[in-house]
Task: inverse folding
């Protein structure tokens, strides 16, 4: 495809190694979750994140998902009981590698502390920066579409091993716009950025996503 003026990039396996996500980012959450909850327990933002998880948990229970359990409210349980329930919920969802908005939002919220402290740095493939420079020099617009939340995407490229790459990107999309294996998601992205689907190059390591994008 040569007649494109817009690029939409996946993250995992495309601009960053899958191993970085599964061997660094995910363990950062699971291994540090209890200490993180203790440290920021009184934060209003944490309360909002837990409420998202609570609503998702109720939906999962209503849908009779195996292992799904409700997360109690502050009126129903002690802080320690709520923390234990949140930890169990997140560990269950991460073990299943769910692409659920509430989970992705919480992960991004927790990673923010790691990136800002310098403990985390988004690993970027060596060939990514030259390609970004080339596309920008050619006048192309570059976007990201990932199952990770938009805040998590911005952290990864903003605090990367290649420096702050946020200047290269004109926008970000996550699964709020739709699942990545559904053609309709790519139509919505094209509408959002006011481009014809035929003028967009989508780059991913996942053949199912490529097929979905190619159907529009």
Result:
């Amino acid at each position: 495809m040569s007649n494109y003026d817009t690029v939409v990039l996946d993250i995992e396996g495309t601009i960053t190694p899958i191993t970085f996500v599964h061997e660094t980012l995910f363990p950062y959450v699971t291994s540090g979750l209890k200490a993180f909850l203790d440290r920021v327990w009184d934060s209003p933002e944490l309360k909002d994140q837990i409420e998202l998880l609570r609503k998702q948990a109720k939906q999962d229970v209503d849908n009779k998902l195996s292992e799904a359990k409700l997360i109690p409210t502050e009126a129903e349980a002690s802080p320690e009981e709520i923390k234990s329930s949140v930890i169990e919920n997140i560990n269950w969802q991460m073990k299943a590698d769910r692409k659920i908005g509430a989970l992705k939002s919480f992960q991004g919220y927790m990673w923010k502390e790691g990136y800002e402290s310098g403990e985390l740095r988004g690993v970027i493939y060596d060939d990514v920066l030259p390609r970004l420079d080339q596309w920008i020099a050619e006048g192309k617009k570059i976007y990201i579409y990932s199952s990770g939340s938009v805040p998590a995407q911005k952290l990864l490229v903003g605090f990367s091993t290649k420096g702050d790459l946020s200047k290269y990107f004109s926008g970000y999309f996550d699964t709020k716009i739709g699942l990545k294996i559904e053609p309709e998601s790519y139509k919505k992205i094209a509408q959002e950025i006011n481009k014809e689907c035929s003028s967009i190059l989508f780059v991913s390591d996942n053949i199912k996503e490529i097929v979905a994008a190619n159907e529009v």
Remarks:
- The beta strands are 6-9, 141-145, 171-173, 200-203.
- The chain has a mean pLDDT of 96.
- The chain has two domains: 6-16+122-215, 21-117.
